[in-house]
Amino acid sequence: MSLNQTRMLATEVSCRYILDTSVYPKEPAPLKELRELTANHPWSIMTTSADGGQFLSILLKIMNAKNTMEIGVYTGYSLLATALALPYDGKILAMDINRENYELGLPVIEKAGVAHKIDFREGPALPVLDQLVQDEKNHGKFDFIFVDADKDNYLNYHKRNIELVKVGAIIGYDNTLWRGSVAALPDAPLRKHIRYYRDYVLEFNKVIAADQRIEICQLPIGDGITLCRRIS
Ligand code: SAM
Ligand code: CA
Predict the structure, then answer these.
(1) ipTM, 2 decimals?
(2) How many CA atoms lie within 13 Å of 165's alpha carbon, on the beta-carbon side?
(3) 187 pLDDT tier (thresholds 50, 70, 90)
(4) What domain of life (predicted)?
(5) 62-88 pLDDT, tens per residue?
(6) What digits encode the pLDDT tens for the residues 105-153?
(7) Which residue puts its alpha carbon closest to atom 20 of ligand 1?
């Protein structure tokens, strides 16, 4: 086995250890139910990992976040993790082009008693963000935004999100390691859709690291989450 393969195996074993020891035993019952329900869906690979959900939950609580947004819902794992972490009067503006998948998880969200916090909008997120930005009342309105959707639009989302979050608030961008492809050699064998979005993720990571309006921290949780804290 090569040194690289040994390292990858050690990372996988550590991730498994974290899930088994610290994440699954603490996973709230509604999230477990939603994760198991989603596992049978053909696109289940898209769901947020349980450690990602746990991380979002503790972050939102530390921040005392109340007014939030999510771009990219799928069946709602990160949405439910957020809804459970927010106070009773917390709000999530949630957007996805696919309502059907959201409705698959909705009964679990309703049973958990947190559906009243969610304002779901079906359709592309960008026009909704444009509409929000047009109204100055929405500037600095959000405590937290989680982006987990079309990677080729991350920079477009960032341009708008930065206007919409408060100074001191956080924007979390998911999949910034893009299945490890961001660090792969240029000629590494990659699946077609990984190769297609890789350049967008690389460009996003580069631009974000140079953006003077934010502090960042890229975490190797799930497929990589980059936290951006607005500082100006
Ligand atoms: N956060 C979700 C979870 O925890 O299960 C996973 C989201 S999944 C990786 C990405 C989602 O982005 C898909 O459900 C897809 O329909 C949605 N999406 C893709 N393009 C979009 C767009 N332009 N606007 C809004 N949502 C979009
Ligand atoms: Ca994701």
Answers:
(1) 0.99
(2) 29
(3) confident
(4) Eukaryota
(5) 999 999 999 999 999 999 999 999 999
(6) 999 999 999 999 999 999 999 999 999 999 999 999 999 999 999 999 9
(7) 150
Burial label, 23 (beta-carbon count in 10 A; 0-12, 13-18, 19+): middle
- Whether the pLDDT of residue 8 is over 80: the answer is no
Q: How far apart are CA 118 and CA 137, in angstroms?
A: 20
- What's the 113 CA to ligand 2 centre distance in angstroms? 24
Which domains are assigned to the chain? 12-230 (3.40.50.150)
Residues enclosing ligand 1, CB less than 6 A?
A: 46-48, 71-75, 77-78, 95-98, 101, 124-125, 148-150, 153
- The residue behind tokens 């994760």 is 35
Q: What's the mean per-residue pLDDT of the chain? A: 95
| CA 97 / ligand 2 centre spacing (Å) | 15
For ligand 1, pick from 40, 74, 155, 221 the residue to mutate: most ligand atoms within 8 Å of CB. 74
- Can you tell me the mean pLDDT for 177-204? 92
Q: How far is the CA of 74 from the centre of ligand 1 (A)?
A: 5
The contacts of residue 225 (CB under 8 Å, 6+ apart) are 52, 55, 172, 173, 174, 176, 218, 219
Task: State which ligand 1 atom lies nearest to the alpha carbon of 146.
Answer: 1
Can you say how many angstroms the Cα of residue 95 is from the centroid of all Cα atoms in its chain?
Answer: 12
CA 177 / ligand 2 centre spacing (Å):
10
* The residue to which tokens 């190797």 are assigned: 220
